[in-house]
């Protein structure tokens, strides 16, 4: 319980400092520009499919910026002082993570509010909005957990390169396939295909969640996709906390 309390207060403190410093102006300006370019009232009502696909991509892109900024603030020498006051490594990292989520989810909420007031979605009620929002928010949480794992204070450079190489291999289907794959020796081609299948499996909930966010269709097996997203978030975040706890503490800032 003490760990949860310390995490909460450190996240609240970090969020307050982030807002007070004015860094959030970048996210606010980006949200305003995105609304003006993509979501303001047109001659035709905006469809839910367009909103959730466009808002999903924008929110993920904005999350990358917010995560890089907040985690860079945590990767400074002042962190030694904070950790020395019995905060603990897990609450420290989770506090930074929750700060990113608060800002990213908050900007998405602002965007939704602007659209709901000025240009409501065509044939979409509150329930449809919630059904489209849940997997989108979980994808933001998953991306934030992955970026937290890749921060220099959590993983060393060789391990970050290894993780990125595995992700690149999982996405290599569009780069290594067809004639390129057939030109390789059969054992190499089979091994590459097996590794690609195994590594791409954890990414399936994220891509399926994005599709469900656009379609809002939870029939059949789609109903368990948000649960899979949530467990994937917990798994990646737990690995990040474990790696941060085991690594020699060296802040780069």
Task: Please tell me about this protein's structure.
The protein has 253 residues and is an all-alpha fold. It has one domain (2-246). The chain is 75% helix and 0% strand. The model has no long low-confidence stretch (mean pLDDT 85).
Structural class: mainly alpha
What's the total number of strands?
0
**Quaternary structure annotation:** single chain
Return Rg in Å: 20 Å
Low-confidence runs of at least 5 consecutive residues: none
* Percent of sequence in beta strands: under 5%
Q: Treating each run of at least 4 consecutive H or I residues as one helix, how many helices?
A: 11
Helix proportion of residues, in percent? over 70%
Alpha-carbon distance between the two ends: 31 Å
- Domain count: the total is 1
- The average pLDDT value, as a whole number, equals 85
Helix and strand string, N-terminal first? HHHHHHHHHHH
The outline comes out as: globular
Main sheet makeup: none
Protein name: ABC-2 type transporter
Organism: Roseiflexus castenholzii (strain DSM 13941 / HLO8)
Keywords: Membrane, Transmembrane, Transmembrane helix
Task: Sum this structure up briefly.
With 253 residues, the protein is mainly alpha-helical. The chain has helices at 2-20, 24-39, 48-74, 78-84, 89-118, 126-149, 157-170, 179-182, 186-200, 204-215, 225-246.
Write the layout of secondary structure elements.
Blueprint lengths: L1 H19 L3 H16 L8 H27 L3 H7 L4 H30 L7 H24 L7 H14 L8 H4 L3 H15 L3 H12 L9 H22 L7
Helix pairs in contact: 1-5, 2-3, 2-5, 3-5, 3-6, 3-10, 5-6, 5-11, 6-10, 6-11, 7-9, 10-11
